[in-house]
Amino acid sequence: GAADIVAGRGGRLVKTLGDEVMFVCDRADDAAAIAVEMHDLSAPGAEALSLRIGLATGHLISRMGDFYGGTVNLASRLTAIARPGSTLLDAATEGALVDPDAYVLPDLVTIMAEIDANTKLPEEEKARKKQESQKTFAERSEMVHNVDQLIRAYCLYEKDVQYVVQDNQVL
Hints:
There is one protein chain. The protein is of the alpha+beta class. The chain contains six helices and eight strands. It has helices at 2-8, 28-39, 70-81, 91-96, 108-117, 123-159; strands at residues 12-17, 20-24, 52-55, 61-63, 66-68, 86-89, 165-166, 169-170. The strands form four sheets. It has a two-stranded antiparallel sheet with strand order 1-2. The chain has a two-stranded parallel sheet with strand order 3-6. A hairpin with a 2-residue loop joins strand 4 and strand 5 (66-68). It is elongated, with a radius of gyration of 18 Å. The relative contact order is 0.12. The mean pLDDT is 80.
């Protein structure tokens, strides 16, 4: 479940409340990887869950095992405006990601043609490489979508001075 995914990437599960999960990580890449894995979380034979995830990087106030502060509030706001099945990041999290190519979509047609043209590869290896390339494309495609959502959220919140959150909606 969620606790295993968080722990598997070196994160710490802070709390769960109903269908909400709060976790912390030392590295933005680990948090992003947890988010991607959480989107894949579903019961065997069931449809994938349409999670909304918000990731924010910054100073936290820790008290009695819980975390507070502006970073927590920002992550909550990003979660509230995320579309089902998406993750929104704040600018600090985006800037802290290590892999700059994570947001570059590979040219899938060229990659597939190169794999097919390689006569030294056995058919099983070609199939594995094609599947791996398709998975990379899908993951990066989602990340690009998430950046688009981040930019929209950033523009929305940059202009406002005060926020009121009521019934999980920003007013």
